[in-house]
Specification:
D-amino Acid Aminotransferase, Chain A, domain 1; OB fold (Dihydrolipoamide Acetyltransferase, E2P); Helix Hairpins; 763 residues; 6 domains; 26 helices
């Protein structure tokens, strides 16, 4: 009977329709009608029939969710209608101003608002043509995004064909891709079991999943999607947000169950407060409320600004806090030997994550807050990113609690190597004095390999620890002498349960190490871990020097110190002595980047071959943008401060700095600086952001802060760490804390979200 092709085609169509219907019932409506066993039977029959009749396979068949080979790269595609961002607000007064603007703009017409939860995910736009999914684009810079259609097709709740007999010619559904809280926990549990690093939070995990080039890997991630807006629409008449939500239901497009409407400011505020009391019960993370004028005609009347609609606003909630028990305090050893206390907590849910650890900063901070083991403590995410202990709930303190003694807690020795520790008054911290301390070497190596430094892919965490433990790396520059045969058999597990790094990962790491040889000077200055040199100062130092040797005896840095009235170190030229062919004995390796933090190093003797350059004049420094003259005639530094300039000169004047320079020369590494090599930011360079100063806060989905800073500087802008009267924009990513935004409001600094920021970069 099934031999008849018409019968086969009919059966295939019936099976696809049934599977789509059950997918909708299960993933969208949460009302399954059949068991998993029965569903698997339908799916199995469909797959076998399509295998026997490949000419009858359709692109929207449920079997085609994961199809095709891995991509080499994502295509960038123009949005048919820009995906605009929303202006954020953090307080009720600003919300009232928004309401007053809407009322005034509608000239007496009464607005109706729709309030929906703000999902903490990744924005996406799905395009359906004649009911069939044909394209999925990320927000990107708002004007164009990455084509991630193959990845979106793997999400079970996304219909490959709309549930409507007469679909519109074009329908773009816009929403948010996310991971549920339970799905995220399961994913991290699986990664831990595989020996992989955990994801920091569900949003980062979602963004990373969508960037996977292999849809088969994406299919293994617990992604879901909720829709809340429309893009390009043809063949259907939509009049309001409430109509759109109903349309999503009829099309089988998943939307949020919770929403409220309001007509007055008081009703609007009440809805937002109501949402805040229930949002933690949602299966996904939220970080605020989205308020939209319901009527589309009224939206047209209200219009929009250059980057955001005037008829909508995002209300962000204050950082969440939680109470939990401090079970014990562990001490971590950093790359410079600094001992940092960490609170080990009874796991507690906070801002979408399960928190089990929080920073305690240092001994003085513990003493100031009188934090004790066994205390009930209040924690929050600093900027809703880094968990920190805010205070102690004294009323819940155990009767037998004792004051925490930092030194006694670790038996007056390093918890990593058992070596001697000393109090460092300059850094208000205890420090391990053993230069061979494995924990320090690992931290220095991780810092050296970090993305904002040399970006040595695959070198971090377990790999760094194994390289140090197995004796292959004793100081960061040792990575340039690693071999394929060593790395391929590197055991990341234990002797009892070995887990090899493998030839493929070894080749990937060696390729990254080779690329690092030609990284710009700024990246190398960051990687070396010079005190007081962060990404921003590394960039500016890199752009005004030709190479690293020039930095070592910099006339620019000495000129900055002199012009700003600071002492100028007696910097002498780097002594050019031959490098020994034999490697240093193991007990001598690892000293690089350590001794310099402890005490002043002996200065080398100048040579005629490398004369110390003349100090750069104030006039030239002003031209370089490193100095400005006040009204009283005094010069002040701008992007490179006196403390940083001194640190850099002292570092390279020390024996440690010389050793680094000589070894880099022996390895054939000569990082180049200058304006052309100052940054590796992608995209168009130019001066579109010239004269503008940005402060970044919160978490950006599209890039980390160092990459964002590099992109700003590539377009002529400046980046600062704190909000001041000189700040032009505060870029507020996800999970933004209130401190910087409150300061911005106080000073009248404009707050923009990630989408608006990306639009600026796109310009």
């Amino acid at each position: 009977m099934m031999e008849n092709k018409d019968n086969v085609a009919g059966r295939l169509e019936w099976l696809r329709g049934e599977i789509r219907r059950h997918d909708r019932l299960y993933y969208v409506e949460a009302k399954p009608e059949i068991s998993d066993f029965e569903y698997d039977g339908l799916y199995r029959e469909l797959r076998e029939l399509e295998k026997a009749h490949p000419e009858l396979v359709t692109e929207d068949s449920p079997t085609q969710r994961v199809a095709g080979e891995p991509l080499d790269a994502f295509k960038t595609v123009q949005h048919s209608i820009p995906m605009m961002s929303l202006d954020n607000t953090y307080d009720a007064d600003d919300l009232r101003r928004f309401h007053d603007y809407v009322v005034k703009g509608l000239a007496g017409k009464k607005p109706l608002y729709v309030i929906e939860p703000k999902i903490d995910g990744v924005s996406i736009s799905l395009r359906y043509e004649n009911g069939v999914l044909v394209q999925a684009l990320t927000r990107g810079n708002g004007k164009q995004g990455d084509d991630v259609t193959a990845n979106i097709r793997t999400i079970p709740s996304v219909p490959l064909r709309l549930f409507v007999d007469s679909p519109p010619e074009v329908f773009e559904a816009r929403g948010e891709v996310f991971m549920s809280k339970s799905g995220f926990l399961k994913l991290n549990g699986l990664r831990i079991a595989r020996g992989e690093d955990e994801f920091a939070n569900a949003r980062n995990a979602t963004a990373g999943s969508l960037k996977q080039l292999d849809p088969r890997q994406v299919a293994e991630r617990p992604l879901d999607i909720l829709f809340y807006a429309q893009g390009d629409v043809s063949g259907i008449d939509l009049k309001s947000q409430l109509d759109l939500l109903d349309l999503f239901d009829s099309y089988g497009l998943k939307r949020q169950a919770w929403y409220r409407t309001a007509e007055t400011y008081d009703e609007l505020l009440a809805a937002i407060q109501d949402l805040n009391t229930v949002r933690n019960s949602f299966p996904y993370d939220t970080d605020g409320a989205v308020i939209k004028v319901n009527d589309f005609a009224q939206r047209e009347q209200l219009g929009m600004t250059a980057h955001a609609p005037s008829w909508a606003k995002a209300y962000k909630y204050a950082p969440e806090q939680a109470e939990t028990i401090l079970k014990t305090i562990t001490i971590q050893v950093g790359r410079t030997g600094v001992l940092t206390p960490v609170a080990e907590l009874e796991p507690v849910a906070l801002a979408g994550s399960t928190i089990a650890r929080a920073t305690l900063h240092n001994e003085d901070e513990i003493r100031r807050k009188d934090i004790r083991i066994g205390d009930t403590v209040v924690i929050e995410k600093a900027g809703e990113v880094i968990p920190a202990v805010v205070s102690v709930v004294m009323s819940k303190r155990p009767a037998d609690s004792v004051e925490f003694d930092f030194v006694s807690h670790i038996d007056n020795k390093c918890p990593s190597c058992g070596g001697k520790i000393e109090r460092d008054s300059q850094f208000v911290a205890w420090r391990c004095m053993n230069i061979q301390c494995p924990a320090q070497v690992v931290r220095r190596l991780e810092y050296f390999a970090a993305r904002n430094a040399l970006d040595l892919e695959s070198l971090g965490g377990v790999v760094a620890e194994s390289l140090v433990e197995r004796g292959l790396v004793a100081e960061p520059l040792d990575v340039f002498e690693l071999r394929q045969d060593q790395l391929a058999v590197l055991n990341l597990g234990t002797d009892e349960s070995p887990r090899m790094f493998g030839a493929k990962n070894a080749a990937k790491l060696l390729a990254a190490i080779e690329r690092a040889r030609t990284k710009p000077l700024a990246s190398w200055l960051q990687a070396l871990g010079i005190p007081d040199v962060g990404a921003a100062t590394a960039y500016h130092i890199g752009r005004v020097h030709k190479n690293i040797r020039e930095v070592a005896t910099s006339g620019v840095l000495r000129g900055l110190l002199a012009a700003s009235g600071n002492p100028v170190p007696e910097v002498q030229a780097v002594k050019d002595k031959p490098v020994e062919d034999k490697p240093k004995p193991k007990e001598q390796k690892g000293q690089v980047l350590f001794d310099f933090f402890l005490e002043e190093q002996p200065k080398p003797t100048a040579t005629k071959e490398l004369p110390t350059p003349e100090m750069t004049t104030p006039t030239k420094l002003v031209e370089l943008g490193l100095l400005k003259r006040r009204n009283d005639g005094e010069y002040v530094t701008t992007s490179i401060g006196p403390k940083t300039a001194t640190s850099v000169l002292d570092f390279f004047a020390s024996q440690i700095g010389q050793d680094i320079l000589r070894r880099m020369e022996a390895l054939g590494i000569d990082p180049q600086g200058g304006e052309d090599n100052a940054t590796e930011a992608e995209g168009t360079t130019g001066n579109s952001l010239a004269g503008k100063t940005f402060v970044l806060t919160g978490t950006l989905a599209s890039m980390d802060r160092d990459t964002a800073s590099a992109k700003i500087r590539a377009l002529g802008g400046n980046v600062a760490s704190s909000v001041s009267r000189n700040t032009t924009f505060l870029v507020a990513g996800a999970n933004t804390g209130a401190k910087k935004t409150e300061r911005a409001a106080e000073l009248g600094v404009q707050v923009i979200d990630e989408e608006a920021f990306l639009a600026m970069l796109g310009n």
